[in-house]
């Protein structure tokens, strides 16, 4: 599927590196097509469990390390509008719901995006992921003219409950940029990248397809997650 030109794309994730694996190719392609892209990263991932391999950070220095990595990832993608929203890692689920919705609404009203990318609520595994997704969906739900809302889903029951992705982009043309975005977050990704590159060298087609295809679900307003509350 071809990535279409958009008026503006807003990407909202809670942690540095959330963008790298699932959407960095899509972000890069939009930018190369001339579409403005804004990435709102809600935290600096200061509670990330990895401190480098071998360790080159402490719990106290990790936020600065991850901020530097996030800036390097943005540079790899060609992204110039990076918003660091200043929330604390592993606490987003405890933020006031209306505060979170207001934060998302302010971004949407400022940028007027035609597409928003975030996690898909109910299929994003981590509490920070889920809280971010809920806030975005709630903000968009209140809009009269809603932008396209694309969700990244990777829970174990995703295929069973959501079926195949609605949108699959082949981002092989920007493979280098995606790899550099992932490598930028080296404090968190060293082990994964080492294993992935070994599999790629062995000609593992499943790993290559995972790397070169970015998958999204259109948010299904007729199956709105709020109905399950």
* E-strand count: 7
Characterize the main sheet: 7 strands, mixed
Placed side by side, the strands forming the largest sheet appear as 3-2-1-4-5-7-6
- Could you name the CATH topology? Rossmann fold
Give the CA-CA distance, first to last residue: 34 Å
Q: In CATH terms, what is the architecture?
A: 3-Layer(aba) Sandwich
As a whole number of angstroms, the C-alpha radius of gyration is: 17 Å
Class by alpha and beta content: alpha/beta
What is the percent of helical residues?
40-55%
Structure in a nutshell:
By secondary structure, the protein is of the alpha/beta class. It is built from eight helices and seven strands; from the N terminus they run E-H-E-H-E-H-E-H-E-H-E-H-H-H-E. 44% of the residues lie in helices and 15% in strands.
List key phrases describing it.
229 residues, alpha/beta, Rossmann fold, 15% strand
